[in-house]
Amino acid sequence: VKDQKVSFGSTKWMKFQRDFENFKTACIPWEMKIKEIESHFGSSVASYFIFLRWMYGINMILFGLTFGLVMVPEALMGKPYGSLPRKTVPRAEEASAMNFATLWDFSGFAQYSVLFYGYYNNQRTIGWLKFRMPLSYFLVGVGTIGYSFMIVIRTMARNANEDGGGDDTSFNFSWKMFTSWDYLIGNPETADNKFASITTSFKEAIVEEQESRKEENIHLTRFLRVLANFLALCTLAGSGYLIFFVVRRSQKFALEGLENYGWWERNEVNMVMSLLGMFCPTLFDVISSLENYHPRIALRWQLGRIFALFLGNLYTFIIALMDEINLKLEEEKIVKYNMSIWEASLYNGTIPENSTAPPIEVDPADVPRGPCWETMVGQEFVRLTVSDTMTTYVTILIGDFLRAVFVRFFNYCWCWDLEYGFPSYSEFDISGNVLGLIFNQGMIWMGSFYAPCLPAINVFRLHTSMYLQCWAVMCCNVPQERVFKASRSNNFYMAMLLFILFLSTLPAVYTIVSIPPSFDCGPFSGKTRMFEVISETLEHDFPSWFGKVFGYASNPGLILPFILLMVYV
């Protein structure tokens, strides 16, 4: 009897442990959706959704930093809308400030709000808490980049440690045959998913075995691969020239006045970049069929080509923004001169020479103001992010959903089999979607310093993308013809993300260090360089000896060896 009680207690404890593990799994966001996708489409497709979920977590942290330490303090403790020219819509723009087209273009009231850099005041402290807004703005901008570097490198190190390096190919089919089924499954739906998962794993193993035994005509294979790379380079060159052409056109439109042109001319650069990002991956996919690589290697080549495409487009866009910033700086000199004349004419003859009368009250909406190039940069990145998001959603609805509806309902009355012929059901584009995530995240890192709202927009984008793409995969897509097993280490995705993170920080660091901030907008107005907020804080809020120690510690002669030592370790 005692043994029966012990056995009964241990059974209950084991059941409790199993239920608790199931509860923990259910608490992981979207875990069951991803498991269901993996069971039907394989681990390679599931790896994209795992990567998307990881990116969602990163952006939630970035959103928390910018929202809690920048946007909310300014909204609650800063001066209200209408109190300063930088926080007021100009009189000439008031009539259209609330129009949908204006707000959709992130102008009007959206431009003069906490969404963008120019709204923030340059007071050292705001509110009864004496909150240091310029310092917080600068440290949050630097901290988001530092946190991103830390978490990406840490994830790469953890993936490398978990790789293990053991041999899991011995008796592969025997292990799958005799040990795959879970005899504790009691839910019919779970059993169906497990059956689909086992079937998919056998398909993956068959592909691996076929690839290991394949014999190739090496000369023909080399010729086709050289041809494929030549075609890919031509595509990249054509894309770069097209971006360069539309950027030059946009500069001409800006000089002549965008109000003289329509919606397409105002958004031509963003739309062309989005369309290239939509169609070029499909072209690369057609080109890759010539190379006859293993599907996993073919995916990496595809990712590399799309990465080069996105990177070239992004830096062409940055070069165009740099030219526009230079134009704004030249315009700023003229505006400063005109403002001095305006102020002189305002006070000329209205106040006696030795009078102590208060200055004339002028409505902030009527005060002339200089061009705020930081807000302009932030607006461009927000527009590019929104247009890229809309392009992605339209692609899913038209390229996947409507295509699947057409194949499903017209297959019975068509001349040929639409399911197995043209157009057929679409497959999930792993490479294009992964690179879309990485490219979009690069824009967030690059533009969030000038548009604090960008992390919030990206959180919304990733949240809706998870549900929309999960639905599209399960309802509109079919598994790939050659299902292959994903790499045990996802460091290839992480390596590209780390590279785009490094390249995204370069333009932001350059503008912070080298370009003077606008003189009448943003938290750093009145300073020669943005980073001077650090020296100002050290001078006013810390002892003199601390400033000297910090100056010695920030010497490049000490920083560079320290960075090299960290890289070596």
UniProtKB/TrEMBL annotation:
Residues annotated as domain TMC: 372-487
Residue intervals passing through the bilayer: 54-76, 97-120, 135-153, 223-247, 302-322, 492-513, 549-568
Entry keywords, A to Z: Membrane, Transmembrane, Transmembrane helix
Any one Gene Ontology cellular component term annotated for this protein: plasma membrane
Organism domain of life: Eukaryota
Annotated Pfam families: TMC (PF07810)
Cellular compartment(s): Membrane
GO biological process, one term: vestibular reflex
Name listed for the protein in its UniProt record: Transmembrane channel-like protein
Natural source organism: Bubo bubo
Family the entry assigns: Belongs to the TMC family.
A GO molecular-function annotation: voltage-gated calcium channel activity
Bilayer topology: Multi-pass membrane protein
